[in-house]
From TrEMBL:
This is Integron integrase. Residues 192-405 form the Tyr recombinase domain. GO terms for molecular function: DNA binding. Signal peptide: none annotated. It comes from the Bacteria. GO terms for biological process: DNA integration; DNA recombination. It comes from Treponema succinifaciens (strain ATCC 33096 / DSM 2489 / 6091). Keywords: DNA integration, DNA recombination, DNA-binding. Gene3D superfamilies: 1.10.150.130, Intergrase catalytic core (1.10.443.10). Belongs to the 'phage' integrase family. Residues 91-174 form the Core-binding (CB) domain.
Length: 410
């Protein structure tokens, strides 16, 4: 099920449910304070406040109609095409693609993205097996990339991701030799300088946050973790004796270690003790189960109720698995944290196009300014190539900010 959330006036937002209303969804919206319905536009109007948005997302999530697996991380990704418009050939091909990706242990995020790009490509090209051959492949791929660039206005990196999905599809699903697809257009990726907070700005933003969201923001800045990496942490990932956090299945399915900021040790230990109490209460109520990675769920029978496997930042309310009927807690939703940080940035009066990821940029930049070598920072960030980390060298004093303008010498 999809819900469209848009601004409505100065202090409200509108909700429209693209696939119609159901009783659980209606009840979820009706529980919100100060909500109203506009029958002429078939939309619900709710206050544009952090508290109201948090309640809405929690209520919708508890219906079981909206799951973590359904979330798209980037709005540039193509939406699922209506089933009536996808013929059997497209469905069979995307199923084959998914199977090959799973065998090669690609992440779920990559699998979902590749499937959508290939599905859109096959649908746009009439999805007939006859025109998916060697002779027409290059022409069709180039036309598709042109469509994405000119009609969809996707970025160069997004366009190249779509190309990677198609090349993978032709090589491993269609078994077409890669050398026959070398003349396709590669988008030139632009070099963009990352947005960075000053230390004073970081302090202001964190000061505008409270509770768990404040702790997460400190962790993002203090470790350089990506938001999804921080929210996916489990209790056992923190090793206080070694002063380390184990980041499992990070970007590119890589594991790595980052330090625990010493100023957060007491706060994190206190947070974990509070989680222990909540978990014990859940167990007494017959709940307390958490979703484990598939391989571990088969290996550790009953391990889903052990405290060490619980999320470090669980949701406030329990979540019911629609497939199994079991109730447990999922980790905090990324959108709640993103929205809280955006609001904190506004309240701090910071006019930068920033988000939770800016804490990661600031972490790397400030380490460089403190004299740490680029290889150490590369390892902490989990970059495969040091050239990715080199983008942060723009902040050193020998860069633009450290040059004295001739105007200042007049």
């Amino acid at each position: 099920m999809q819900v469209l959330i848009q601004p409505y006036g100065k202090s409200e937002i509108s909700l429209s449910f693209l696939s119609g209303f159901t009783e659980p969804v209606l009840n979820a919206v009706r529980r919100l304070p100060n909500r109203r319905y506009e029958p002429s536009q078939r939309i619900w109007i709710i206050p544009d406040s952090q508290e109201c948005i948090d309640s809405l997302l929690q209520n919708l999530y508890l219906t079981g109609l909206f799951t973590y697996e359904d979330v798209n991380e980037n709005q540039n990704y193509p939406r699922n095409t209506n089933d009536e418009l996808i013929n059997d050939y497209v469905q069979n091909e995307t199923k084959k693609l998914e199977e090959v990706l799973k065998v090669r242990h690609y992440s779920k995020c990559t699998i979902d993205r590749y499937k959508k790009w290939v599905q859109l490509f096959l649908t746009q090209n009439s999805a007939s097996e006859s025109n998916c051959n060697n002779q027409s492949a290059q022409k069709e791929i180039n036309e598709y990339l042109k469509f994405l660039a000119l009609k969809k206005n996707v970025s160069a990196s997004t366009q190249n991701q779509a190309l990677a999905a198609l090349l993978f599809y032709y090589r491993f699903v269609k078994n077409e030799p890669m050398e026959k697809l070398t003349n396709v257009v590669h988008a030139k990726k632009k070099t963009r300088i990352p947005v960075v907070f000053s230390r004073q700005e970081v302090s202001k933003i964190i000061g505008n946050l409270t509770g768990t969201k404040k702790l997460i923001a400190k962790l993002l800045y203090g470790t350089g973790l990506r938001l999804n990496e921080a929210l996916s942490l489990r209790i056992l990932d923190l090793d206080f004796d070694r002063n380390e956090i184990i980041v499992r299945h990070g970007k590119g399915d890589k594991d790595r270690h980052v330090m625990i900021p010493r100023t957060l040790i007491c706060e994190l230990k206190s947070h974990i003790e509070n989680l222990r109490k909540i978990h014990e209460e859940d167990l007494k109520a017959g709940f307390g189960s958490v979703k484990l990675p598939q391989a571990l769920s088969d290996k550790y029978q009953g391990g889903s109720k052990e405290f060490k496997w619980q999320w470090l930042f669980p949701q406030k309310n329990r979540w019911k698995n629609p497939q199994t009927g079991e109730e447990g807690r999922w980790h905090l939703d990324e959108s709640l944290m993103q929205r809280a940080v955006k609001q904190a940035i506004l309240e701090a009066g910071i006019n930068k196009n920033a988000s939770c990821h800016t804490f990661r940029h600031s972490f790397a930049t400030h380490l460089l300014e403190n004299g740490y070598d680029i290889r150490t920072i590369q390892e902490l960030l989990g970059h495969s190539d040091v050239s990715t980390t080199m983008i942060y060298t723009h902040v050193l004093n020998r860069g633009a900010g450290g040059v004295i303008s001739p105007l200042d010498k007049m």
